[in-house]
C-alpha cells in the first residue's frame, strides 16, 4: 500500500466512509450534497452572476446579439488596444466592427510575442453564479489557455441564460474533466504579506465579461 492510499484511507474513515478504495467513483462516493443554494429563477441566477463578477472586480456588460460587435469594438477602443488575439473558432461577426490587427491563436507563438498583444476575445464553457466564476475548456471559440493568461486584457462573452448555472456542482456536470479547464474569478490578483493587492500577476489585469442575451 502506498502512502497515497494510506492518506486517502484516513480521509475516508474521517468522513465516515469505507476505508478501502471505491469500486467505482460513480456509485461508491457519497454525493448527497446541495447542488444549489437557495431557490432562484433564471433571471435571479443571471443577476447573481453579475453581482459576484462585479464583486471580483470584473467589468460586467450586457447586450443583445445585434449589439455584440459594437460592444466588443467599444471595449477594445476604450482599452486603447491596437491588436487582439482571437481563437480559431471565434465567431467572425463578433469582431466585425473593429479594424485592429488580429493575432491568431497559433501553437508556435511565444510568450514574449503574446505579451505584445493588447487584448483577447473569447467565449466560455460555463459561468457559475454563486461564485462569480467563468470556466474555459479550450474549445475552438476559447483557444489555448495561454492566450487568456499572458495577455493583459480579456473580453469574455457569456451566453445567458444558456451558459449560466447556479453552482459548482452544476458546472461540473457540464464540463469534461479531460479538457484543459481554466477557472476565472475576476482579474488575476495576489496580495503580499501586508495585503497590498496587485493585479495582473498570473493573468489579465482587466477582465471584461459580456452577458449576451438573445
TrEMBL record:
Residues 51-212 form the LUD domain. InterPro entries: FTHF_cligase-like_sf, LUD_dom, NagB/RpiA_transferase-like. It comes from the Bacteria. This is Lactate utilization protein C. It comes from Streptomyces aureus.
